[in-house]
Amino acid sequence: MFKSYLFKWVLTGALLMMPVALASCQKAGPKVQSYAQDGLLGISDVNPNMPMSPTYHTYGEDTNLMQATIDQVPHVIDSNIRINGPVATVNIHVPAELTAEETAAVARDAQDKLTKAMPRYTMKVTVSRK
Length: 130
Description:
This protein is of the alpha+beta class and 130 residues long. The chain has helices at 2-25, 43-46, 59-70, 100-117; strands at residues 78-84, 87-94, 122-129. It has a three-stranded mixed β-sheet with strand order 1-2-3, with helices on one face. Strand 1 and strand 2 (87-94) form a beta hairpin. Helix 3 (59-70) crosses helix 4 (100-117). The longest helix is centred in the first third of the chain and has 24 residues, at 2-25.
Protein backbone atom coordinates (compact mmCIF):
# COMPACT_ATOMS: atom_id res chain seq x y z
CA MET A 1 0.00 0.00 0.00
CA PHE A 2 2.86 2.36 0.81
CA LYS A 3 4.40 1.55 -2.57
CA SER A 4 1.23 2.49 -4.45
CA TYR A 5 0.98 5.88 -2.65
CA LEU A 6 4.64 6.53 -3.31
CA PHE A 7 4.20 5.59 -6.96
CA LYS A 8 1.20 7.95 -7.28
CA TRP A 9 3.13 10.83 -5.70
CA VAL A 10 6.16 10.27 -7.89
CA LEU A 11 3.98 9.96 -11.00
CA THR A 12 2.00 13.10 -10.09
CA GLY A 13 5.21 15.04 -9.39
CA ALA A 14 6.75 13.90 -12.68
CA LEU A 15 3.63 14.87 -14.62
CA LEU A 16 3.55 18.29 -12.97
CA MET A 17 7.26 18.91 -13.66
CA MET A 18 7.16 17.74 -17.29
CA PRO A 19 5.84 21.06 -18.77
CA VAL A 20 8.48 22.96 -16.81
CA ALA A 21 11.23 20.67 -18.05
CA LEU A 22 10.01 20.83 -21.66
CA ALA A 23 9.72 24.62 -21.58
CA SER A 24 13.23 25.02 -20.25
CA CYS A 25 14.71 22.89 -23.06
CA GLN A 26 13.28 25.02 -25.83
CA LYS A 27 15.38 27.75 -27.37
CA ALA A 28 14.05 31.25 -27.56
CA GLY A 29 13.03 32.04 -31.13
CA PRO A 30 14.69 34.79 -33.14
CA LYS A 31 13.50 38.32 -32.72
CA VAL A 32 11.12 39.38 -35.42
CA GLN A 33 12.43 42.34 -37.40
CA SER A 34 10.46 44.34 -39.88
CA TYR A 35 11.81 45.34 -43.28
CA ALA A 36 12.47 48.90 -44.27
CA GLN A 37 9.70 50.47 -46.32
CA ASP A 38 11.85 50.76 -49.45
CA GLY A 39 9.82 48.51 -51.74
CA LEU A 40 12.67 45.97 -51.88
CA LEU A 41 12.07 44.19 -48.54
CA GLY A 42 14.98 45.96 -46.88
CA ILE A 43 17.61 44.93 -49.43
CA SER A 44 18.78 48.49 -50.05
CA ASP A 45 19.61 48.87 -46.36
CA VAL A 46 22.19 46.06 -46.46
CA ASN A 47 23.66 46.66 -49.92
CA PRO A 48 24.83 50.24 -50.48
CA ASN A 49 25.52 49.54 -54.16
CA MET A 50 21.89 48.89 -55.03
CA PRO A 51 20.68 51.57 -57.45
CA MET A 52 17.72 52.29 -55.15
CA SER A 53 19.99 53.07 -52.18
CA PRO A 54 20.46 56.77 -51.37
CA THR A 55 24.24 56.19 -51.07
CA TYR A 56 24.56 54.66 -54.54
CA HIS A 57 27.00 56.42 -56.84
CA THR A 58 28.49 55.51 -60.19
CA TYR A 59 32.04 56.29 -61.23
CA GLY A 60 30.63 58.93 -63.57
CA GLU A 61 28.85 60.70 -60.72
CA ASP A 62 31.96 60.43 -58.56
CA THR A 63 34.20 61.95 -61.24
CA ASN A 64 31.66 64.74 -61.85
CA LEU A 65 31.72 65.60 -58.15
CA MET A 66 35.52 65.48 -58.10
CA GLN A 67 35.67 67.75 -61.16
CA ALA A 68 33.27 70.22 -59.54
CA THR A 69 35.48 70.21 -56.45
CA ILE A 70 38.64 70.80 -58.50
CA ASP A 71 36.92 73.69 -60.28
CA GLN A 72 36.74 75.47 -56.90
CA VAL A 73 40.54 75.39 -56.51
CA PRO A 74 42.18 78.61 -57.77
CA HIS A 75 44.79 78.57 -60.59
CA VAL A 76 43.65 75.23 -62.07
CA ILE A 77 43.75 75.24 -65.88
CA ASP A 78 42.97 71.59 -66.60
CA SER A 79 42.63 68.30 -64.75
CA ASN A 80 42.51 64.57 -65.37
CA ILE A 81 40.82 62.09 -63.03
CA ARG A 82 41.34 58.31 -62.99
CA ILE A 83 39.61 55.97 -60.58
CA ASN A 84 40.98 52.50 -59.91
CA GLY A 85 38.96 50.81 -57.17
CA PRO A 86 39.34 52.83 -53.96
CA VAL A 87 42.14 55.02 -55.35
CA ALA A 88 41.50 58.21 -57.30
CA THR A 89 44.47 59.68 -59.14
CA VAL A 90 44.01 63.36 -59.96
CA ASN A 91 46.43 65.23 -62.23
CA ILE A 92 46.06 69.00 -62.09
CA HIS A 93 47.64 71.50 -64.49
CA VAL A 94 48.39 75.04 -63.37
CA PRO A 95 49.95 78.00 -65.23
CA ALA A 96 53.72 77.84 -65.77
CA GLU A 97 54.28 81.21 -64.10
CA LEU A 98 53.26 79.92 -60.65
CA THR A 99 56.08 79.47 -58.15
CA ALA A 100 56.88 76.16 -56.47
CA GLU A 101 55.23 77.38 -53.26
CA GLU A 102 52.05 78.36 -55.08
CA THR A 103 52.00 75.01 -56.89
CA ALA A 104 52.40 73.19 -53.57
CA ALA A 105 49.57 75.29 -52.10
CA VAL A 106 47.30 74.32 -55.01
CA ALA A 107 48.17 70.65 -54.44
CA ARG A 108 47.38 70.89 -50.70
CA ASP A 109 44.14 72.76 -51.34
CA ALA A 110 43.00 70.25 -53.97
CA GLN A 111 43.99 67.29 -51.78
CA ASP A 112 42.09 68.72 -48.81
CA LYS A 113 38.93 69.55 -50.76
CA LEU A 114 38.87 66.25 -52.65
CA THR A 115 39.40 64.20 -49.49
CA LYS A 116 36.52 66.00 -47.78
CA ALA A 117 34.23 65.70 -50.82
CA MET A 118 34.95 62.01 -51.50
CA PRO A 119 36.13 60.33 -48.27
CA ARG A 120 35.65 56.80 -49.64
CA TYR A 121 38.56 57.27 -52.07
CA THR A 122 42.27 57.51 -51.36
CA MET A 123 43.29 60.64 -53.27
CA LYS A 124 46.59 60.91 -55.09
CA VAL A 125 46.94 64.47 -56.32
CA THR A 126 49.75 65.62 -58.60
CA VAL A 127 50.19 69.16 -59.90
CA SER A 128 52.19 70.09 -62.97
CA ARG A 129 52.85 73.44 -64.60
CA LYS A 130 51.69 73.92 -68.16
